[in-house]
Specification:
It is a single chain. By secondary structure, this protein is mostly helical. It folds into two domains: about 1-170, no CATH class; about 185-215, no CATH class. The protein is about 85% helix and about 0% strand. It has helices at about 1-35, 35-45, 50-60, 60-95, 100-135, 135-170, 185-200, 205-215. It is elongated, with a radius of gyration of 24 Å. The model has no long low-confidence stretch (mean pLDDT about 80). InterPro entries: CNNM, UPF0053_domain. This is CNNM transmembrane domain-containing protein. It comes from Halorubrum distributum JCM 13916. Pfam families: CNNM (PF01595).
């Protein structure tokens, strides 16, 4: 009975880790999706959480590192706690049905599959889809708790970022920023073409801007 209670508590802990993983995934995609200009407008409108979100956008690379660290820790914890807990609950059920040598193997496979399903669907795909579809609302909602997570992770982030930047510099790749919103000419042309096709920009305006690029060439 005690063993079952322990396994159930571990399954509950695994579910918490799935939620945490989803929190970090949603934060990462929402922060990348929303534009700095949109955040400035939210601050001007006095939206709750907008000032914290603006702080996040100012230090976006560090906050993205915090989300990645959180995702990694939650994923590792989920694998460490979740699979053995589910397997321990399943083994007594499988005992009378399978040869003794197969019980643990089958229980492990079922536990692994179940935890993987929860992780991928509820810890990755669903949060990503929600964050992309509702970037503004999710960013405002998650910025305050993400700030707390960033403060907790900041010592580790400094070490990891410093080590990664040193390594990439050694192989001739300078550190790059994920917050850089600068578009190259061909990207601007592509965006303009799509906007023109969708009717968001007049064809005459598209042609005028294309002409500016042609003059520059």
């Amino acid at each position: 009975m005690v063993a079952i209670a322990v396994s159930l508590s571990r399954v509950a802990a695994a579910l918490v880790l799935v939620v945490l993983n989803g929190f970090f995934v949603a934060s990462e995609f929402a922060f990348v999706r929303i534009r700095a200009t949109s955040v400035d407008q939210l601050v001007e409108d006095g939206k709750a959480g907008a000032e914290t979100l603006q702080e996040v956008m100012t230090n976006l690379d560090d906050y993205l590192a915090a989300t990645q660290l959180g995702i990694t820790l939650a994923s590792l914890g989920l694998g460490w706690i979740g699979e053995p807990a589910v397997a321990a609950l399943i083994e007594p059920v499988l005992g009378p049905l399978l040869p003794e040598g197969l019980v643990h193997l089958v229980a492990f496979a079922i536990g692994f599959s179940f935890i993987t399903f929860l992780h991928v669907v509820f810890g990755e795909l669903a949060p990503k889809t929600i964050a992309i579809a509702q970037a503004e609302r999710i960013s405002l909602l998650l910025a305050p708790p993400m700030k707390l997570s960033y403060l907790i992770f900041s010592p580790g982030i400094a070490v990891f970022n410093g080590t990664a930047n040193a390594f990439t510099s050694l192989i001739g790749v300078p550190p790059a920023s994920e917050s850089d919103e600068t578009l190259e000419e061909r990207e601007i042309r592509r965006v303009l073409a799509r906007a023109g096709e969708a009717g968001h920009v007049d064809e005459s305006e598209v042609a005028m801007i294309e002409g500016v690029f042609e003059l520059d060439d």
